[in-house]
Write a structure and sequence with these properties.
By secondary structure, the chain is α/β, with parallel strands linked by helices. The chain contains 25 helices and 38 strands. About 35% of the residues lie in helices and about 25% in strands. Helix 1 packs across helix 3 and helix 13 packs across helix 14. Bound molecules: adenosine monophosphate and magnesium ion.
């Protein structure tokens, strides 16, 4: 689309267009199918119409908008390949002396170079015709069909073999895809919807890039490509970066003046292996490019046909990102008496995930990023352009620096991620212990009911007295600070007595789940060094051959009744061990996480402040003690005077009985893993109707899919869902997302760090990654456990010094989980799959897995993911 300013001779313009179409067979060609094969049909005479649209009546601004709109519309109008014409023109009249000429050619008969040919001829013809002179242009020596025929004859036999051999070798083992992190899950079929963003890089930078290219014997293109491939490598974590790049393809002089499709696409594979410096990478890119140019004649379509890469309608084969330096500026020669200027028409399509077009201009390097709007938000692309510029600046400043160490982020980006989003310092009772807080609550509400199980109802005072008797009993058996006591019993009010008794004695409990295999229980008991084992009748027989003293709590009442009922004295400190939870590796020995009072208290205080209990609330205990979620579930309400019902395991396993119990007790809050939430939703029971009091639903422990969240929303429109993320190593929960914040669009976030907690998302070298880029989640702050019991090496490996905060002794826990920041500071947890899942032959993206599972539960039976650090430990994620 060109804006023509000045007195326009419409007749001469129309005549010129007709002459161009007459000269170039390609513009009169259509493609029909003959005996099942496509053939070119060149029509002899074809009159080009130049329909005019008059916009003169519109006010100036509306006129400009309408012109752009019509130009966009023209660009998007379909061609009929079989019928033609594949060339069309349109004229918009804005004022007497201002027109817009819109010319649209199908790419099958033209390319970028053709546009320049077209404009040059148009200028010469218009100049002649308006003066009534004949065409000054010599007839063309050959036509596109001649070239096509020549190419077919030439590109066969040995010539073809030689080119094919090269590309087969060059593209062997090419990655199935460049895994650019997208803002939205990839759809099954690429829609080609797109948008573009432009920027101009400073002239000074362009000059230094040119100078660097020159000194390295490379072209500017190679330098820009090398930097771009380095950027993609940083974004994807891949070392093998295939990028497509167009090449004019007019290697024969005779083709230079033709309009037609000559352009070809070369696949240029960037090799980032071995953490190269820019100078090293540029040498590789230079070699790859030169070889590719020497084998540029094999059409991309032919290559795809020969290589037969796995096809996927959601992705372009072999490469998904296009990169071009346009060295032939789209020339706009003047038409006599007219000023010609391009009318910018916003591109609404993207053929690939991303297309990058660069152009050297006197003012600097213009960059246009065209991107698939199905995949990316504009903010992501703007950030990427900023990162590209920083990378370019860095490589011209120091080409010998390893590319992996270049900082992509600006100072403010870095500050936002490292500091602003981690400003969570908040007061909490930092000198208190879990049982200390309990004792304070007992003082406040000694007569209030605190626990109900099927058998008994306990009040605060009674619970405290029983726990005290047990504590004194345990102290006589050597339990005190840093001494571990095993607890293996069925869930009941008595279990809470046991836990409080251990803590009050100054010790730490190690939960032993009665449903675990005996060898595993024996291992945990031995490894933890438990001095005493508290158990009950059903669970006691599961243990044999160990050194701990076994105390069956259901049969020591007589002994306990002799003990004192008063709170044991002797200060426990916040830095003392509170419990040791063994995390469940499916292979290898389980490891005991040594958790401290401080982490629990900080976690509780955050929750009490953020989600304060109201009078009349009721909670429930139903989580196995061996899961860290049970810590809040038991003590969170208890330390605030809120009663809980304790549910036996059989009830939890039966959705109907479970829901009935929650309803009867008027439970107001529940903590549950998403799979339990799913089971409840699957039960078909009307949750909102059955549980009108249950307003707070806290999920944690597993990824919460968007699909499950939406089902929750649909069933419980009035309830609030809180998604917490964490692990045993960080006192349960360290990030929080609240469903009242904003309706999730593409994934349910795990939210932001809770009080006194820092979350960092780092790359493989421990450097923070920018917003949107996946990395590993690291956690710092007051929730950190002491480490793994008896495993100093493992502790040193996973609990590292915090390099970002100048707080003496600050540590970071390396979670092994992957996540990324969104631009609003919310964190997204990324399910990582180390293998491909296919559905009807198409690869499913990790982000899509769970939502598709809803539709095809019968097809995909299990999704297992491997943690990078624990490749031998498959993890069932759905
Ligand atoms: P554990 O060590 O047994 O406490 O399990 C902790 C692990 O569970 C974390 O490292 C995560 O992989 C996973 N996890 C916990 N909470 C969430 C959550 N809200 N979303 C996704 N994954 C979670
Ligand atoms: Mg774990």
């Amino acid at each position: 689309a060109k804006r023509l300013t000045g007195p326009l001779d419409v007749g001469a313009l129309e005549e010129s267009l007709n002459e161009i179409v007459r000269r170039h067979d390609a513009l009169r060609t259509s493609f029909s199918v003959c005996e099942g094969r496509p053939v070119q049909v060149i029509s002899q005479a074809r009159q080009v119409a130049l329909p005019e649209t008059d916009l003169r009546d519109l006010p100036v601004e509306a006129r400009e908008r309408e012109a752009s709109r019509l130009a966009g519309l023209e660009a998007g109008r379909l061609f009929d390949l079989a019928q033609g014409p594949l060339f069309r023109a349109k004229l918009l009249r804005l004022t007497e002396e201002e027109h817009v000429l819109i010319v649209t050619m199908h790419h099958i008969v033209s390319d970028g170079w053709s546009v320049a040919v077209f404009m040059r001829e148009l200028a010469m013809l218009y100049d002649a015709f308006r003066l009534g002179k004949p065409s000054p242009l010599p007839e063309l020596p050959i036509q596109y069909a001649d070239y096509a025929l020549w190419q077919q004859n030439w590109l066969r036999g040995e010539v073809l073999e030689q080119q094919l051999d090269y590309w087969k070798r060059q593209l062997a083992g090419i990655p199935a895809a460049l895994e650019l992190a997208t803002d939205r899950p990839r759809a099954a079929v690429h829609s080609f919807r797109g948008a573009s963003i432009g920027a101009i890089l400073p002239l000074g930078l362009l000059q230094r890039l040119n100078a660097l290219s020159h000194s390295e014997g490379a072209t500017l293109f190679m330098t820009l490509l090398a930097a771009f491939q380095a950027l993609l490598s940083r974004y994807t974590g891949q070392e093998d970066i295939p990028v497509g790049s167009p090449i004019a393809g007019r290697t024969q002089v005779e083709t230079e003046g033709l309009i037609g499709f000559f352009v070809n696409t070369l696949v240029l594979r960037g090799d980032l292996s071995g953490d190269p410096t820019f100078r090293q990478l540029l040498a590789r890119v230079r070699e790859t490019s030169l070889e590719a140019y020497a084998h540029q004649d094999l059409p991309f379509e032919k290559l795809v046909e020969e290589l037969q890469p796995e096809r996927d309608l959601g992705r372009n084969p072999l490469f998904q990102v296009m990169f071009a330096l346009q060295n032939t500026p789209a020339s706009s020669p003047e038409l006599t008496g007219l000023k010609v200027a391009p009318l910018s028409v916003e591109s609404k399509t993207s053929h690939f995930d991303l297309e990058v077009y660069l152009l050297e201009k006197p003012s600097g390097l213009t960059c246009t990023f065209v991107y698939a709007t199905d995949l990316f938000d504009s903010g992501t692309i703007v950030r990427m352009m900023g990162h590209y510029q920083r990378l370019l600046e860095s490589v011209v400043a120091d080409p010998d620096r390893c590319l992996s160490t270049v900082d992509l982020m600006s100072g403010s980006e870095r500050h936002q991620i490292l500091v602003e989003w981690n400003q969570t310092e908040t007061e909490y009772p930092r000198n208190k212990t879990v049982h200390g807080l309990f004792e304070e609550q007992v003082e406040r509400t000694p007569e209030a009911v605190v626990l109900r199980d099927g058998r008994e109802e306990l009040r605060f005072g009674e619970l405290n007295r029983r726990a005290n008797r047990l504590a004194h009993f345990l102290r006589k058996r050597g339990v005190g600070p840093e001494v571990v006591v095993g607890v293996c019993m069925e869930r009941s009010a008595r279990t809470v007595v046991a836990l409080l008794g251990v803590l009050k004695a100054g010790g730490a409990y190690v939960p032993l789940d009665p449903s675990y295999p005996e060898e595993r229980l024996a291992f945990m008991l031995r490894d933890s060094g438990a001095r005493v084992l508290l158990t009950d009748e059903p669970s006691a027989p599961r243990f044999s051959g160990h050194e701990a003293e076994v105390v069956r709590l259901d049969s020591v009442d007589a002994a306990l009744s002799a003990e004192s009922e008063t709170n044991p004295v002797g200060a426990s400190r916040p830095g003392d061990l509170a419990y040791v939870i063994y995390t469940s590796g499916s292979t290898g020995p389980p490891k005991g996480v040594e958790a401290l009072h401080r982490g629990c208290v900080n976690r509780f205080a955050w929750m009490w402040r953020t989600y304060p209990f109201a009078a009349g609330e009721v909670c429930c205990q139903k989580t196995a003690l061996s899961f860290v979620d049970s810590v809040w579930e038991i003590f969170g309400p208890l330390l605030q005077g809120i009663p809980s019902v304790v549910l036996p395991e059989e009830t939890v396993r039966d959705p109907r009985a479970f829901l009935e119990t929650l309803a009867a007790a008027r439970v107001t809050r529940i903590v549950l893993v998403p799979s339990l939430l799913r089971a409840l939703l699957d039960s078909g029971i009307d949750l909102a109707g059955t549980l009108p009091s249950l307003r707070w639903w806290v999920t944690s422990g597993e990824a919460l899919s968007l699909e499950l969240y939406r089902r929750f929303r649909g069933s419980l429109p009035g309830a609030t869902l809180i998604n917490l993320y964490g692990s045993s190593e960080v006192s349960a929960d360290v990030t929080c997302w609240d469903s009242r914040s904003a309706e999730p669009r593409d994934a349910v976030p795990i939210g932001r760090p809770i009080a006194n907690t820092q979350v960092y998302i780092l790359d493989g070298r421990g450097q923070p990654v920018p917003v949107g880029i996946p990395g590993e989640i690291y956690v710092g702050g007051h929730g950190l456990a002491r480490g793994y019991r008896n495993r100093p090496e493992l502790t040193a490996e996973r609990f590292l010094p915090d390099p970002f905060r100048r707080v003496p002794g600050a540590r970071l826990f390396r979670t092994g989980d992957r996540g990324r920041y969104r631009d609003d500071g919310q964190i997204e947890y990324l399910v990582r799959t180390d293998f491909q899942i296919k559905l009807r032959g198409r690869r499913i993206e990790p982000g899509e897995i769970e939502s598709r599972l809803g539709e095809h539960a019968a097809v995909v039976q299990a999704v297992v993911c491997l943690r990078e650090d624990l490749p031998d430990q498959p993890r069932l994620v759905a």
